[in-house]
Amino acid sequence: MTLVSPKRGKVLSAILVTSLVTALSLWAFYLGHLHRWLARGEPTGWWGAAGYCLMVASGLAIGIGILTAPFSLARAGWVERAARAGTSVLGAILLVSAYIDNRLYGVLGVHLYDSSVTTLLGRGEVNASLHITLAEVLLVSGSTLACALALWLAGWAGSHFVRRIAQGGWIVGVSLGVLFVVGWVGSRGIHAPLPGAASSALPFYDLRFVPRAVNSTGEAWTIHYPRFGGPLPKLLRKPSFLLILVETLRGDMLSPEYMPELWALQSRPTCTRSANHQASSHSTDHCVFSLLYGLHSYHYQILGKRNVPNFPIRVFKESGYHVLGASSAPLAQWGELSYVTEQFQSFFEAKGADPVERDRDLLRWSMDFLASDSGKEPFFLFVFFDSTHHKYYYPPDFEKFRPALAEGHSLISGDEHDPEIRTRFVNRYRNSVGFVDNSVGTLLRLFIRLGEGKDWMAAVTGDHGEEFWDHGLLGHASVSFTNDRSRVPLVLCNSDSRSLSLPLTSHVDIMPTFLDYAGLIPPIEPADFSSGVSLLRAQDAERLVLVSSIDFPEKNRQLAVVSPTSKYLVWKDPEGAKTFRVTSTSDAEDVPAQRPEADRQKALEFLNDTYRRFFVRVR
């Protein structure tokens, strides 16, 4: 007695064989992908990683079989054939997706399912960042069809063989289950990865096995921002404020060679340049939040879910300011930023077919506002230039550094290991920086000229940096706190020509500095509404600032504490309100260096003090 007819048993055998071949092929691919990462000294070990990958590969293949195998029992012949074809197609999609994920991780250090990638997908700007060509679409489609055909042939040939061993191919299904169990047992050798360890290369590992934040104490917390009650304070005086933010601007770009306009302005008596300005995070929306709220970036989503209003913006509005924003990119569509931009009285989004056109439109709008009657009243104006984001846009007449990569370059099929390609990449970025520098210089010069005889303050900075294989990767999407990603320029100008000393600054300092320049009545300390300090006041020589990872602490558990001379990489344990540990230390230029235990403890004490400053326990 057989469970299924010979014909249906043949179809089922083909489906199971196809799933088995998919599992083994996917496993082999994963091992090839991991080899170069595990060779770096992955603490989990090769065998544990191999077992984990076998478990994932066989689990995915079993999932395909579960989806398609029941259709082998259908009476209609076309359903059976569709089930066989569907198994092959799904297996091929898995294999091609694994290749693309491998490629993405090798270049950017992130997976297809990482939040930085899914956010980009949600904004529909994948092609603007990756420039996927028609040839690449055809290549991916052709590869998928070729894989599907190969899997179909393997299933067809294998079904004849396995039916000689066990009718219906049940032995193949058992084999898949055995592979999964063996993989699961082998994966038990993996220990929880340390921050920055190569186990992040393991497919889906951080989604399933890296623990998320857990409130093991059962304590309930509520937001207490700002930390004082009563009516909003007034402003002692009403200077106008200009805050210019540039997308993806490395700190080493502020030089006569790359940014001659801003460099010339920062040398004026009215301006000061920070020696070491650290971004709050490595993503635009987190950094925009930190700049405008003056809070560490991990508050971003927490306050956004509750629509907690921006204290500095409220003060400006209450004091009769025009509070305006303008952007070359659709910031309101990024992450949770809509609740930030909606608090402006007006938020202009530039128009244009590409970032160059939009940046020019943004500059025209900003200059028109400054020259208008509205620009003669006290105002707070936030301006965001976007051309320096990958693919690093600029008009032809700004191609100073050559050879430069063509605008149509692609991260999907380009050879990023070629030194010539890397040089062209960097030159393209430098040219883009030069174009934006020209716009920033034009706007800032106009602001200063129209402000003659008036009270004003301006700040120019970048949201985050950009790595160009300084430490093996490209971009800023993956979690990393090296200076190429976290250090950005800061130029602070004011009508008082105050001479400031700025050895170490942060995004969270800008708004407290603006409010301190205007003067709050009654006086309120920055610590009561901000994570930062006023840069107008004397700075602590041993000051510490914080750089957070994206989605800290729920998904990513890493951050960095930075001092004028050192950097401490810190891991937050998933349980406990304030359980931090220093995992590595370096000097201010990212060179690994040991630091005294007392200094490490000081960094942890700083975290414990600042982590929940604006939260109170619910009794």
Topology of this structure?
Blueprint: H1 6-38, H2 46-68, H3 77-108, H4 115-123, H5 126-130, H6 134-165, H7 170-187, H8 205-208, E1 221-223, E2 234-235, E3 240-246, H9 260-266, E4 271-273, E5 277-278, H10 284-293, H11 300-305, H12 311-318, E6 322-327, H13 338-341, E7 346-349, H14 355-371, E8 379-385, H15 419-450, E9 456-462, E10 467-468, E11 474-475, H16 483-486, E12 487-488, E13 490-494, E14 505-506, H17 510-518, E15 520-521, E16 545-548, E17 558-562, E18 566-572, E19 580-587, H18 597-610, E20 615-617
Q: What can you see in these coordinates?
A:
It is built from 18 helices and 20 strands. The protein has helices at 6-38, 46-68, 77-108, 115-123, 126-130, 134-165, 170-187, 205-208, 260-266, 284-293, 300-305, 311-318, 338-341, 355-371, 419-450, 483-486, 510-518, 597-610; strands spanning 221-223, 234-235, 240-246, 271-273, 277-278, 322-327, 346-349, 379-385, 456-462, 467-468, 474-475, 487-488, 490-494, 505-506, 520-521, 545-548, 558-562, 566-572, 580-587, 615-617. The strands form six sheets. Strands 4-13-9-3-8-6-7 form a seven-stranded mixed β-sheet, sandwiched between helices. Strands 16-17-18-19 form a four-stranded antiparallel β-sheet, covered by helices on one side. It has a three-stranded mixed β-sheet with strand order 12-5-14. Mean pLDDT is 85; it is low at 1-5 and 214-218.
